[in-house]
Amino acid sequence: VSLLEDHLVACHVMVSVYDRVRERVQKDGRVSVFLSSPFAGMEERPLFVEQFLPILKGKCAARNVVLNVIDLRWGISEEQARDNQTLSICLKEIDKADIFVGLYGQRYGTRYDEARSAETKWVVQNLKTALPSYPWLNDYADRSITEMEYRHGFLNNPTERPGLFLFRSPEYDAQMVEKLLAEGDTTVDSAAFINPDQHTKTLRIELERELTQLSESLSKAVGQSDGPVPVCHVHSYPNPEQGAELLFTRLSTMLDRVLPQKAQLAHQSAHDAFALSRCRFFMGRDSLLAELDSKVMQHASVHSQYLPPSNPESPAHNVLEDQASSEPASEPAPASESAPGRLPIVVLGESGTGKSSLLANWARRCSQTNPNIQVFTHFVGCDSDSTQLQNLLLRIIEHLGCHVSNEDRGSAERLAFTLDRHVSQLIIDEQQQQQQQ
């Protein structure tokens, strides 16, 4: 009975963890992987990022999902490090991660040591900064930043997210130390592959043993190593090259469990997935949203005589009426130039400055605050069909669900007039790509 209960609990944990992550991924259109390891002596990380990460990003993109690998070796500024924010930032990023990945050589990582107080006091200072938000850290004040990440990312709560842990063979580290010492190095480079004392070495060994035992207990409970993808992978590897490849293959398997299947994508276009992904990368720019609101309301007040009658009790009607009465346009455009569709609002900016994120977030907010207004978005370049004018027009028609006769379909002017009577806000991203069409 006990073995059966363990089996059922393990199966439930494995299924429920991946199911929860998959639901988040489908909702957000993104999957986040936190990559943790000691900073020094881990050539696996750049090898993975350069050789294999683009493949995984392509795999996710094919399912309309953005893959975000959080590698804080390059994500913490000097100012944040001086303010002892390193540990806090790492743990907060782990809170947002869907999958946790840990890489370890033989070096345990920096921990506070009274014998080396000048070199290691920054760990204590970071610990004090993070303690108010993460009080459990007090029980691990003598541990390395990397172990704290491992515990928060997986060990403290193995049902929160799947974990992948890869440990490099000690033979490789020993060979690197021997090689560097033979070349005349006595301090800097070789220190990336060894521990400064026996206690630190023991902590590294105990952490690997704890994770291995947890992984084995779950596998035994399930009873089939090739069955359900475990929530805790623990593997060893001989060298950085094979480590990077192992990380790729195992992480790819885990992503297969959380990415939406192609059949599930029928209801969500590439444009929807693209918009969702851009909504997650837009922080601290509310002033731009407010400025766009102002421009739209000013534009609407000038052309209000062309808008179809709205429900006087709707939020959209009230916003439009209030804005039109309080801020009338000082110099309305001539009627011949202000006919429907002749004066669009255009957002300009250099590539990479966040135009897509601005429009995606504004469109979502507009839909949420004004449910009676239809908002249609088209992101040119999000897939191979999006650059075609025919695709744009057909998407608008399908979005509206309105009937268009064959005669009207053959006339650009009639089609434009039909669409203008139904659409209050039309957003086309990267329109310069369609100018010639």
3D architecture notes:
It is a single chain. The chain has 437 residues and is an alpha/beta fold. The protein has 16 helices and 7 strands. It has helices at 2-28, 44-61, 78-82, 86-95, 117-130, 145-155, 170-182, 198-222, 240-258, 270-279, 286-302, 315-326, 355-369, 389-400, 406-409, 412-422, and strands at 30-36, 66-70, 99-104, 163-168, 232-237, 375-379, 425-429. The strands form 2 sheets. A 5-stranded parallel beta sheet has the order 2-1-3-4-5, with helices on both faces. Strands 6-7 form a two-stranded parallel sheet. Helix 2 links the parallel strand 1 and strand 2. Helix 2 packs parallel to helix 9 (240-258) and helix 10 (270-279) crosses helix 13 (355-369). Residues 223-227, 263-267 and 305-341 have low confidence and may be disordered.
Question: Structural class per helix/strand content?
Answer: alpha/beta
Percent in helix: 40-55%
Spatial order of the strands in the main sheet?
Answer: 2-1-3-4-5
**Average residue-wise pLDDT:** 76
> How large is the share of residues in beta strands?
5-15%
Number of helices: 16
Task: Calculate the terminal CA-CA distance, rounded to whole Å.
Answer: 70 Å
Total E-strand runs: 7
Order of helices and strands: HEHEHHEHHEHHEHHHHHEHHHE
Shape: elongated
Instruction: Characterize the main sheet.
Output: 5 strands, parallel
Q: Which residues sit in consecutive blocks of at least 5 with pLDDT less than 50?
A: 223-227, 263-267, 305-341
Radius of gyration: 28 Å
Multimeric status of the protein: single chain
